[in-house]
Amino acid sequence: xxxxxxxxxxxxxxxxxxxxxxxxxxxxxxxxxxxxxxxxxxxxxxxxxxxxxxxxxxxxxxxxxxxxxxxxxxxxxxxxxxxxxxxxxxxxxxxxxxxxxxxxxxxxxxxxxxxxxxxxxxxxxxxxxxxxxxxxxxxxxxxxxxxxxxxxxxxxxxxxxxxxxxxxxxxxxxxxxxxxxxxxxxxxxxxxxxxxxxxxxxxxxxxxxxxxxxxxxxxxxxxxxxxxxxxxxxxxxxxxxxxxxxxxxxxxxxxxxxxxxxxxxxxxxxxxxxxxxxxxxxxxxxxxxxxxxxxxxxxxxxxxxxxxxxxxxxxxxxxxxxxxxxxxxxxxxxxxxxxxxxxxxxxxxxxxxxxxxxxxxxxxxxxxxxxxxxxxxxxxxxxxxxxxxxxxxxxxxxxxxxxxxxxxxxxxxxxxxxxxxxxxxxxxxxxxxxxxxxxxxxxxxxxxxxxxxxxxxxxxxxxxxxxxxxxxxxxxxxxxxxxxxxxxxxxxxxxxxxxxxxxxxxxxxxxxxxxxxxxxxxxxxxxxxxxxxxxxxxxxxxxxxxxxxxxxxxxxxxxxxxxxxx
Length: 566
Fold this sequence. Notes:
Distance between the termini: 26 Å
Shape: elongated
Number of helices: 24
Strand order of the largest sheet: 4-5-11-7-8
Mean pLDDT: 91
Largest sheet: 5 strands, antiparallel
Structural class: alpha+beta
Radius of gyration: 26 Å
Strand content: 5-15%
Helix content: 40-55%
Oligomer: single chain
């Protein structure tokens, strides 16, 4: 145990070159810089009591967007926690990035210990952490969701492997919890990686005839769906209320095989053809592990040592790796043509998440089976560990580092959140295209900020509004005549309008904002954003599932303590 802890800490120290750039007081540049504004919108929603967050009130000139309901959640809960401890948004973002790499290493180290010695587990964790695609997500794309998803993958696989070795309700619940966290961390990561993880684990259970483990894995998958139901069910059922637009053509982003073997490092974007301005290489050590695994399989067949405990895990890992590589190739387009979530995936090269997980595992599985003495095996492991760091550490640095704080990003991507004296709308925001911020299908993107949140047609109508909480707007209206009132917020299911305490019918203007007719006299207006029945039911089921999962874990731990006392 002491040896394992020492090697774990050595591994974490070895990650310092990879995370050091995030401790610079300045901010690295990256593709997804809008995430800083997204973080602000999630934090605002949470601070105002909206949980889970479903509406971004400041987007589209403050007409709002249902972006928060359909975007991932867990990374923003972590940044919110850090912000409550006093960190700025940009520092919260950077610290979650650091956390994703450290937690991912710990998870893969623990996973590797299920198959190999602590020294090989250290190697596996370092290769997993220093795989080039990790650097792409951290320093090129700046993808908070994908980076955190890569930290969760090893834990899902760890508990599934433990479940295969010794079926238990505890590990099944842990699989369900960790998989549910993946659901709310990143949609494409869930769609692209989780099936491969289950193919490996369930295939192993079936081929070794461990039916109890197989059925517990099915249970864990159902539990994960129930735990994350509050997120994915409304996102699926209410997607029909969105304008169906995508800024990317999925079929332009298949990497070429030669790019997977080697492609030059750059900080640009993905384009059609083989001349992308970012790297899609699987990794030299990762490719070497594939070769070693194939050699080990051949030797096992020649020497007739194909025991299920060592042969099948390598074979299944090679299979899922090959499948992922095939699906990244344009020749697999026939599959993507019938795949229902093509546009949600956006980039087929995202399957590098899967190769990033399984290629280091190939090394962990295959290296102990090489016909080498302990001395030479330890030397090989040391050389590979050093090479994994030395060959890749220079990818783990930003293209540019600039003096940009929260206000720079908020001024760039939100209209009025960080104004300077004399400004009514940020000039940087006016240069920004909000095509990523989802629009309701009844909405038209506005071109300017409204005069105020609530306006009337007649000039004699007096409106006194309290808009301090954009999810609970109150107003007093005094008009000598019947008038038409406009609430400059896009309509989306969940918005309710009350006039003098009673629900009232609304219509939509050209932009898709809510309007209503108000009789003459004095009236009180209330505009609230609430959960639809689908959201309410999903929330209740998820909450109940979390309670049941917690009870199951408490009972299993109590049972173990009781057995120890006896």
